[in-house]
Amino acid sequence: MTTTATPATSRRAVDPPPRYRRPLGLARESWLQYAVLGLLAVLVLAPIVPTLYQSFLDRPLYEAGGILGLDNYARLFTEAGFGQVVVNTALFAALTTFLALLIAVPMAVVIVRTRLPGGRVFAAAMQWPFFISSLILGFGWITMYGPAGFVSVEVRRLLGTLPWNLYSIPGMAVTEAVALAPIVYTFCANALRQSDASLESAAQVCGAGPLRILGSVVLPMLRPPIVYSAILVASMSVETLSVPLLFGQPVGIDVFSTFLYRNGLQSIDPDYGVLGAASAIILLVTISLVAVQAKLLKNARRFVSVRGKATRLRRLDLGRLKWVSLAAIAFYVVFGAFVPIAGLIFRSFTLVFTPLQSPLKSLTTGNYERIFTYPVYVQSIYNSLLVAAIGAVLVSVLALLAVMVARRSDFRFARTVEYLALAPQAMPGIIVGIGLFWALAFAPFGLGTLIQGTLGALIIGFGLRALPSGFGSMAPSLMQIGQELDNAARVSGADWVRAFTRILAGLLKPAFAGALVLTFVTLLKEYSPAVFLGSADSNIIGTTMLELWVQGNTGSVAALATLQIAITAAFVGLAGLLLKGRNDA
After folding, report:
1. What is the DSSP letter of 166?
2. 210, 188, 200, 191: which is closest to 106 by C-alpha?
């Protein structure tokens, strides 16, 4: 008689699925999701609500008995000279956007889609101005191309006149366009690298030449990144403070940001009502630009060229025109970024920097000795590093949680979380500073008095500005991870939190590391919210440079700017080595 043995697996009891606590009847994933939603709502609404409320109030927020009305808006357009500010801002933003597109779009096409000698070198060089703040680039342009700049004096001596004027709206626009062109280049270059080359091959088979292919096939397919980057550049031009403050304010040219700076921080008796009304209008303008961007890209599917079966990218040969393209790109890289930055670095090692006297005769390390002698300057460097390091970690963690909730959960307010995470891209830095200043003044339980003027306030303000970058850098990586992985975990009994911590968190480590690098650089070069949120004890490199520039201490400004460039280069280089080979970072 034969007996069949029952397998051990059939005798062993199946492990029951893990049971998770449900505080107050809610699953822990719901607690986490609502916490992310609540935190984002507080961060985003904190600067907006008091700004809008102050714009309708007839007295400062801290005074009782205020009456709501539209008098602030009426005074803004009738008494404060705001009409000219609007015209100046519109001209500056439009010209900056046009020049940035004119510089970056052709360069992206030529570098990515054509056989250009030294293409990889120029591709890297085109992106480096992104890592340098426009404040430092503005200092460099004044040092080399200002009325008394090193290059300007030589050109005036040779030609008898100076053919450019930095202290004008076109001068401001050229400088800002050079600083923002890498953003346009990055969007367009990434789109070109990912697109299918079959359409170009078809045009080539039909007898189209390289120029016809570029003009009729490649450029039309770039409309989505061009629109996206153009709106982004326009909104950044509206909010920027550095270049208008350095170039425009000395000659009385006011734009939105300098108007707020002059009537808020520099005024002995600020008119908070007018300040709130102006801030509300700027906020409305930037939000409208983002809404227009979304509207224009609503039907972006018709520009999709990446399919399941793609052809290999083949670079076009422009013939002799490649040398013209090479010269144009070299001109931008050398004279737009390299010469100003090199001049600024050289200025940091000289007592006097002018072609009237050989700089080699006035070499010194005194500028750096002055920086490291005075504790306040050393403290500003330490503060900047501390804000960037702590802020990068906090922002990246919050961005990761927001991406998970928005893109990988069945949370009923998932779309709201995404909107809140991306909303700060429509909030100018100086508005964030003003709004948070008012919000902290009225924070409950005395929290505002504890945070106001400290590094904590700067981390909140800077982090809010960097949040969209962190979210945007991690969202594509999450979308590339198949949902079957976390679905399998859920089938096995894991809840949403466990599936995230055990599976997705590990797969997203490279993307998280990339977000850390991006947010660290963004926080290190940020400074505009600190104009209203900082204090004497919480100065950072940017605000210290502005103070030294106003005092006429250009040598120390150059030394601080050089140190910030060196810190950024060292961090980006180290991060590049650590993340080498991780394409998803």
Report:
1. S
2. 188
Distance CA 406, CA 450 (A): 33
Q: Say how far residue 536 (Cα) sits from the centre of its chain.
A: 26
Residue linked to tokens 């009409």? 83
- Residue 24 CA from chain centroid, whole number: 40
pLDDT tens column, 318-341: 677 778 878 888 888 888 888 888
Q: Answer for the pair 387, 458: CB distance below 8 angstroms, yes or no.
A: yes
Task: In whole angstroms, give the CA distance from residue 283 to residue 428.
Answer: 7
Amino acid at 404: M
Residue 27 corresponds to which tokens in the numbers above? 């699953």
Q: Which residues pair with 57 in a beta bridge?
A: 68
495 pLDDT band, cuts 50/70/90, is low
Taking Cα atoms as reference points, which of 4, 55, 23, 27 lies closest to residue 495?
27
Q: For the chain, where do the domains classified as CATH 1.10.3720.10 start and end?
A: 38-48+365-585, 84-258+280-302+318-364
Helix, strand or coil, per DSSP, at residue 147:
coil
What tokens does 43 get?
């961060």
Greatest CA separation for the chain:
116
The second-level CATH assignment, the architecture, of 84-258+280-302+318-364 is Orthogonal Bundle (1.10)
> Which tens digits make up the pLDDT trace of 398-457?
998 898 888 878 888 888 888 888 888 777 788 888 888 888 877 777 777 788 888 889
| HSE-CB for 341 with a 13 A CA cutoff | 23
**φ and ψ at 267, to 5 degrees?**
-80, 135
Go through the chain and tell me how many residues it has: 585
The fold for domain 38-48+365-585 equals: MetI-like fold (1.10.3720)
Enter the tokens of residue 144.
Answer: 């080399």
**Cβ proximity of 261 and 40 under 8 Å:** no
